[in-house]
Design brief:
16 strands; 7-stranded mixed sheet; alpha/beta; FAD/NAD(P)-binding domain; 30% strand; 2 domains; 270 residues; 4-stranded parallel sheet
Length: 270
């Protein structure tokens, strides 16, 4: 489907951006993991968000999402795997589907684990980031699933249902992927396993993996005061732009990013 603005991430920054895109009459799609997988969900008490004292993380997130839904924002649960620009439109793959937008806002938080040894070398040769996309290629074969969330467990269950021989590693701290022309073995936290494929299902992909050429410093996306990145039509907000990692900061940056993205769409509408 086609939208004016697509937002990657459904936390405070992404939801704030969605509300402000809609306030300017633009269509917007928020692509995110389930709300329960947002780090803020684990907070028992948030006492420094203006106007909403002594509120839990889940209550705050639900309040934000209810506001965004009431504003007319659309939502899609899933993980963005890659992006590409053609002309002045952005195309975003979410699982096996493709969404289109005039501007993008990256608000997916921070990647909390580094790439594993062999991950990049075997990408496309046994390493995959999407079970529903590539699972059928490994039907009847041995695969390892590296996951950090309930969504990852469900993808592992999907692989089992279609006939893969699945070993699930939850929240692995270290992992080495080895082989010849393709993946042959994975060693996670001291457990070595002969496999034909490895599915690495992180909640968030590194911004520079999603956007080749994206300017970043020390792992954080570089933005100007309008939350614009160095890529045309791409804005960023929240934890992915650096500290402090605070709800108020994320919501404020989301507001600016939403306004800037809507303005970008207007200026590039044919």
């Amino acid at each position: 489907m086609s939208f004016d603005v697509l937002i990657i991430g459904g936390g405070p920054a992404g939801l704030s951006a969605a509300v402000n895109v809609r306030a300017r009459g633009k269509t917007v799609l928020v692509v995110s993991n389930p709300l329960e997988e947002n780090p803020l969900w684990k907070a028992k008490k948030v006492d420094n968000y203006l106007g909403l004292p002594d509120i839990s993380g889940p209550e705050l997130l639900k309040t934000f999402q209810t506001h965004a839904e009431a504003s007319g924002a659309s939502f899609l649960t899933g993980r963005v795997l890659n992006t590409a620009m053609a002309g002045e439109r952005w195309y975003v793959s979410v699982g096996s589907d493709v969404q289109e937008a005039g501007a993008l806002i990256l608000a997916a938080g921070v990647v909390r684990s580094r790439k594993f040894s062999g991950e990049e070398a075997f990408l496309g040769r046994g390493v995959s980031y999407c079970a529903t996309c590539d699972g059928m290629l490994y039907r009847g074969r041995r695969v390892a699933v590296l996951g950090w969330s309930d969504t990852a467990r469900r993808e592992a269950e999907f692989l089992t249902e279609i006939g893969c021989q699945v070993t699930y590693f939850h929240n692995p701290r270290s992992c080495e992927i080895t082989g010849g022309s393709a993946v042959e073995q994975v060693n996670c936290d001291g457990t070595a396993l002969a496999v034909d494929g490895v599915f690495i299902l992180r909640p968030v992909m590194a911004p520079t993996d999603l956007f080749p050429g994206l300017a970043a410093e020390n792992g954080f996306v570089t933005v100007d005061r309008q939350m614009a990145t160095n890529l045309p039509g791409v804005f960023a907000a929240g934890d992915c732009t650096g500290g402090p990692l605070q709800v108020s900061k994320a919501a404020g940056e989301g507001l600016i990013a939403g306004q800037s993205a809507a303005k970008w769409v207007d200026s590039h509408r044919k």
